[in-house]
Write a structure and sequence with these properties.
Layout: H1 2-5, E1 11-12, H2 17-26, H3 28-37, E2 43-44, H4 48-57, H5 63-77, H6 82-86, H7 90-94, H8 100-115, H9 128-135, H10 143-152, H11 165-175, H12 182-192, H13 196-207
Antiparallel strand pairs: 1-2
Length: 210
Amino acid sequence: MEAYRGTVNTKWFDYGQTEIDYLSSADETLGEAMRRMGKIERVVMPDLFTAIVYAIVGQLISVKAVDTIWERMQARLGEITPSNILRKNEVDIQACGMTMKKAIYIKNIAQTVAHDGFQLEELHELPDEEVIKKLTALSGVGKWTAEMLLMNGMERPDVVSWGDIAIRRGMMKLYGLSTLDKEQFEYYRQKYSPYGSVASIYLWAISFET
C-alpha cells in the first residue's frame, strides 16, 4: 500500500460507526467478520485523473504487480497528471511494467482530459450510473474500472462490483459458498445498500485472509 501512496495525494475512505452498525444489523455474518477484524482503512485518491490511471494499471493484475508498476511510474513520471503523462511517449509509459495497450489508453485519456474538454471534476455532480456511462465512453475504461473510480476516487458509498474477482472471492469465503452466481451476488449487494462500499472494503480484506 505504500507504493499506492507515493507522491500522490491520498486519504482514508471516510466511514464510521453509522455504516458499521447498519451493516452489522443488515447482515449478521458480515457483522461478525467486521467485529473480528476491527476497522479496516482503505486508501483513496481524491484526484480523479490519478485514480483513473491507477485503476487502468490495476486491470487484471495482482495487487503486488500494481504496486510495483505504480512505484516505477511515480519515480519516472513524477506526479501523475495529464501534462506529465503527455511529456512521455507510449513506450516510456509501457516501460514502467504495463502492457502497450494500457500505456496507449493512459496516454489517450491524458490527451482527452488535457485538450478535449472532458471535465473529470464534473462527475461529482452525477449519480453513479451516469458516471459509469460517461467514463466507459473512454477507450480502456470498462465498468469495473469506472466502479473503482467511483469508490477509490470519489468515495461513493454504495459500490459493490460484480466485476471484481476479489470481492466475489471474499463473498464466497464469508458465506462458505463453493460458487457464486449473479443472482446470489445481487441478493447480498442489496442487503449491504446503501453502504455497499464499506462492505466491499471488508470483502476485499476477507478475500486475502489466509
